[in-house]
């Protein structure tokens, strides 16, 4: 996409900007209000943000050309991912680049909180020498409760363990064994609240984590507990925290993130035992370089027609599966394109069955199914359909989907079967990949084929008797349409047969009509199996 334009609406490290500018035209416009962003976004193919830009549904709708939204960081709670998905816009983040920066910030906050460092620093700079006022506590042997044991939670645990703290964690998606390897005991959230001396949260802000620290949960905590939030504002109910600090139940809090940012009106700012930083968790030279490069590379890939590594609104495929599944995904999309053009009626359901060696990749086949859907829907809809919105578009149109994985491959090493039902009929197409770059459609309904899924094809159902194929060829010859290959399948001689002709050019509708009107032809359709939109 040679003329693509990218808008960067938050500060991005130079290393990322260089990558973007080498490939495309880049504008950096920061501090835009929603309306200002809506006013300009229509000109851009991609938008790169950090946490400072709210990418609302309104912005996304105004971004008529948008194909990619990149978040140079982890949290995508400032992006309306559902709106992007509906519009087929890829949303990707850079989840690994700032892990250590946020971890080290958490450790700095925890130590500062224990030893009153910010308060003591401010006091001395006011020319005071108050040693007893800033008596601290040791972290050694204290219990650290980690809520959310992902990338940052785990790195925090490693460092806290090195300081001889006892680490316990709550995360519904982590196994006890995995945590135990890091010397961390997994427990329920309720138990964690009762045993921890210090609690640090490292989850995303989602429905389940909103206000997880609230008046009720604080009441169950140890008296004098200390609380840290370097994850997302909103995980802690700030009003409840203010009350608990004022009452002395909570001895102190260290906050890098807030329910409203900047939190200039927040009562938290006037409490002595609350220490705060202005969302600095990811603000290190190293982290900013990492996330900027990660997101810029993904943006360039996507705008050049490739895929992004950390897409948050498409099925996640482990890297080792992605390479193996690539030719299957390509075949699946072509099979979808073939099926939709050769079947009659309104699409009602699609069944995808993955057989043989594909059974080993069961967890990743959703990715291939999305490409089947893309192949089926993209040729018939005005809205662009892609891997991001394919499932959404199908659901919106009431098209039922199912996906099955089986060891059975009917004599092939691998087999993709797609069964398409419409309001009028049903068609089953099977395909296989022999070696990378060599795939075939091996059957259409009950007829065996060896069809290269490429270019232009005519699919006809006809009576198996002498002269029918010859007459169809004559019509094409007369119109200067070259036949590159031919497949004929039949079950019993003299009955219905299926013919698939690979032709070198498009077949005009009047020529198709002439073929359909021939005696002995029951139906004939023309299909393009290229990956371009039809
Ligand atoms: N302050 C900053 O500048 C800064 C910098 C980086 C990351 N962050 C934020 O830190 C948070 C964690 O980042 P990460 O990179 O570790 O993410 P991650 O995805 O690696 O980890 C998040 C963990 O939370 C767990 N989780 C999900 N729902 C949960 C629930 N209901 N209860 C408990 N745990 C739950 C997940 O299973 C996962 O293990 C994110 O909110 C991110 O946006 C903030
Ligand atoms: O989720 C993140 O990556 C952090 O909150 C960092 O946000 P920032 O990019 O605005 O510093």
From TrEMBL:
Pathway: Amino-acid biosynthesis; L-serine biosynthesis; L-serine from 3-phospho-D-glycerate: step 1/3. Transmembrane segments: none annotated. It catalyses: (2R)-3-phosphoglycerate + NAD(+) = 3-phosphooxypyruvate + NADH + H(+). Keywords: Amino-acid biosynthesis, NAD, Oxidoreductase, Serine biosynthesis. Pfam families: 2-Hacid_dh, 2-Hacid_dh_C, ACT, PGDH_inter. GO terms for molecular function: NAD binding; phosphoglycerate dehydrogenase activity. GO terms for biological process: L-serine biosynthetic process. InterPro entries: ACT-like_dom_sf, ACT_dom, ASB_dom_sf, D-2-hydroxyacid_DH, D-isomer_2_OHA_DH_cat_dom, D-isomer_DH_CS, D-isomer_DH_NAD-bd, NAD(P)-bd_dom_sf. Its EC number is 1.1.1.95. This is D-3-phosphoglycerate dehydrogenase. It comes from Methanoregula boonei (strain DSM 21154 / JCM 14090 / 6A8).
């Amino acid at each position: 996409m040679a003329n693509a334009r990218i808008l960067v609406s938050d500060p991005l490290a130079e290393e990322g900007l260089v990558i973007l500018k080498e490939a495309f035209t880049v504008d950096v416009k920061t501090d835009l209000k929603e309306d200002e962003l809506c006013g300009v976004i229509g000109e851009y193919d991609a938008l790169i943000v950090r946490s400072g830009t709210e990418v609302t549904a309104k912005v996304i709708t105004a971004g008529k050309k948008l194909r990619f939204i990149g978040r140079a960081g982890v949290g995508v709670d400032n992006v309306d991912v559902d709106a992007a998905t509906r519009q087929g816009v890829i949303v990707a983040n850079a989840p690994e680049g700032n892990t250590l920066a946020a971890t080290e910030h958490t450790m700095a906050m925890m130590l500062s909180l224990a030893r009153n460092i910010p308060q003591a620093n401010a006091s001395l700079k006011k020319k005071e020498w108050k040693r007893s006022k800033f008596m601290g506590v040791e972290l050694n042997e204290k219990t650290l409760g980690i809520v959310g044991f992902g990338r940052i939670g785990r790195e925090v645990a490693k460092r806290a363990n090195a300081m001889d703290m006892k680490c316990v964690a709550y995360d519904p998606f982590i196994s006890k064994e995995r945590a135990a390897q890091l010397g961390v005991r997994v427990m329920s959230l309720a138990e964690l609240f009762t045993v921890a001396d210090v609690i640090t949260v490292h989850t995303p802000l989602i429905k389940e984590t909103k206000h997880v620290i609230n008046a009720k949960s604080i009441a169950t905590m140890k008296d004098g507990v200390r609380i840290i939030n370097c994850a997302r504002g909103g995980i802690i109910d700030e009003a409840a925290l203010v009350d608990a600090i004022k009452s002395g139940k909570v001895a102190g809090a260290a906050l890098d993130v807030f329910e409203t940012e900047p939190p200039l009106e927040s009562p938290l700012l006037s409490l002595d035992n609350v220490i705060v930083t202005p969302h600095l968790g990811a603000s290190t030279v190293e982290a900013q370089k990492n996330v900027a490069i990660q997101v810029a590379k993904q943006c360039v890939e996507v705008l050049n027609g490739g895929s992004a590594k950390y897409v948050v609104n498409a099925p996640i495929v482990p890297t080792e599966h992605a390479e193996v599944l690539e030719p299957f995904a390509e075949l699946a999309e072509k099979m979808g394109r073939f099926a939709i053009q050769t079947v009659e009626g309104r699409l009602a359901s699609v069944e995808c069955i993955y057989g043989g060696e594909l059974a080993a990749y069961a967890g990743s086949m959703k990715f291939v199914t999305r490409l089947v859907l893309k192949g089926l829907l993209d040729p018939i809809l005005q809205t662009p359909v892609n891997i991001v919105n394919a499932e959404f578009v199908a659901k919106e149109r009431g098209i039922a989907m199912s996906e099955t994985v089986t060891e059975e491959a009917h004599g092939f090493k691998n087999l993709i079967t797609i069964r398409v039902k419409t309001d009028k009929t049903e068609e089953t197409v099977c395909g296989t990949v022999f070696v990378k770059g060599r795939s075939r459609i091996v059957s259409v309904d009950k007829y065996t084929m060896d069809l290269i899924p490429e270019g232009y094809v005519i699919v006809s159902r006809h009576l198996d008797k002498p002269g029918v194929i010859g007459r169809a060829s004559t019509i094409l010859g007369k119109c200067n349409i070259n036949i590159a290959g031919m497949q004929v399948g039949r079950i019993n001689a003299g009955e219905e047969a299926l013919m698939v002709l690979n032709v070198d050019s498009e077949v005009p509708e009047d020529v198709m009509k002439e073929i359909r009107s021939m005696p002995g032809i029951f139906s004939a359709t023309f299909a393009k199996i290229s990956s371009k939109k039809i």
